[in-house]
DNA sequence: ACGAAATGATAGTGAGTACTAACAAACATA
DNA sequence: TATGTTTGTTAGTACTCACTATCATTTCGT
């Protein structure tokens, strides 16, 4: 059977492309390099994907993990601020980390390649709405004070986004991440809990 | 008088280069385009800078605003948490905004061009040390509780960094920035003040 | 073992682009 | 006016790179 993506050669190429493009950029990486990194020949690349651009688009469609977030929450929330924020923060970083390379690509290539930015920005948008909603409901239950749930949600998100951005080369070494991820999560959640409950 | 960057032609070229490279990427932008955007000819570009790479490096040296931060603080701090955090946050966004395009470039081009990442990361590193120090001193004065000043400083910084990143196309429209910058600053500072004072 | 599908090796095309060479025009200063 | 400096123009070089064509080779189901 053939099709456009039959064996695992396609996947090898897609993964190699993601790796290389994520840390050197679309224009910098050559098709020959990608093929070599995948252990295949350049011809195979073009036979599978026809063009370099289509290769990247296919990579995005195949390896951009989406969704998941809402379901996890609506099931597991216990309506206790600290516990829930911890869950949300940890889940957020887990998903962002899984999509790390895709995010890097869409960050770098927005402006040169069109329509990539949008795809990675669906997550945050949904999460923001969800969090705002959560804060509103928590306030209704009298479990927190919420003068401005939307800004509070956004603050929490941006803090975690900033944390992710500063450590996307991997937590534990390099840059200025002598901060362990979960230490940060715990302390930052404490901070927000303190700021949201009088 | 000649020198390597005499008249304003050099500056026109540097600014055009920054603009174009910031939103399309180093490899995507051609020297001819840059020259055209500057209203000059391609030859003039090479006469002034010799090579494309040197053009970008010169741009960085000339238009990357650094320093400033520490001085502003050590002079203006009043040792009242909310006031100081507001000053710090506003100053931070002001500087980041002035360096917006440079940051975009160093973000995009780190990995392809070497040594750019580091330059834009000096700011945050200094700021982090400063903030940690500030928290320690505030705790000594009994004006806040500080179980973990470094993580608290980092949380505050990353929140503001995340805010900046999500709105570097300009505050007020687009993306998901229906949030005004100063509204965010005020609310987020309130949150941290609440979390840091029992 | 046989045939079909997938992969490889090699060579090449065509477009784009950083950068150079040589000469002409505009401009300033003295 | 004369001279030097800056810019423009035009043509061209050398190189990279996405992509194609052709033929040989491997892999694999049956």
How would you characterize the overall build of this protein?
Two copies of one chain form a homodimer. With 198 residues, chain A is an all-alpha fold. Helix content of chain A is 70%, strand content 0%. Chain A is built from ten helices and no strands. In chain A, helix 6 packs antiparallel against helix 10 (181-196). The A-B interface holds A 23-25, 27-28, 107-109, 111-112, 121, 124-125, 128, 148, 150-152, 154-155, 157-163, 165-166, 175-176, 179, 183-184, 187-188, 190-196, 198 and B 23-25, 27-28, 107-109, 111-112, 121, 124-125, 128, 148, 150-152, 154-155, 157-163, 165-166, 175-176, 179, 183-184, 187-188, 190-196, 198. The structure holds a DNA duplex (30 and 30 nucleotides).
Considering the chains and any ligands shown, give keywords for the structure:
homodimer, 198 residues, mainly alpha, elongated, DNA-binding
Largest interface: A-B, 44 and 44 residues
Taking all Cα atoms into account, the compactness measure Rg of chain A is 20 Å
* Low-pLDDT segments, ≥5 res of chain A: 1-6
Quaternary structure state of the chains depicted? homodimer
Query: What would you call the structural class of chain A?
Result: mainly alpha
Helical proportion of chain A? 55-70%
Q: How would you spell out the order of helices and strands of chain A?
A: HHHHHHHHHH
Largest beta sheet of chain A, briefly? Answer: none
Number of strands of chain A: 0
Strand content of chain A: under 5%
Cα distance, first to last residue of chain A? Answer: 64 Å
What's the overall geometry of chain A? elongated
